[in-house]
Amino acid sequence: MLDVADLRKNHLDTYAYFFTKVITKPKNHPYHLKPAGTYAVAYLMGNYYDSKATYEKLFDWTDEHKFKTGKYSYKEAVIDELATASPSEYLTKISIQVF
Predict the structure, then answer these.
(1) How far is CA 9 from CA 4, 32, 34, 52, in A?
(2) Residues 6 or more apart in contact with residue 32 via CB below 8 angstroms
(3) What residues have CB less than 8 Å from 84, skipping those under 6 apart?
(4) In what order do the strands lie in the sheet with 39-45?
(5) Is 90 exceeded by the pLDDT of residue 89?
(6) Which of 15, 47, 67, 87 could form an SS bridge with 98, CB 3.0 to 4.6 Å?
(7) Where do the domains of the chain lie?
(8) Is the pTM of this model over 0.85?
């Protein structure tokens, strides 16, 4: 998870947390539950770390439509190094809660 305030300042590699999806809530271990709600979503084709243009477009869209955003952005690998050897074929889902 990335802090949206940091992302808006172009701090694109400042991660608040790393996350993984689980089936059941962990016991005796801290966890973050992604809030239910409406999310603005963009897909990044190419290297996972080259996300600046995608975030700019996502924030331009949320600002243009007068949405307030949640605290975190979630980046999830759809296609990564486990599926392809070519970073140009990576696909990343980026989502930010909107209100």
Answers:
(1) 9, 24, 23, 11
(2) 1, 17, 19
(3) 90
(4) 2-3, 69-79, 91-98, 39-45
(5) yes
(6) 67
(7) 2-98
(8) yes
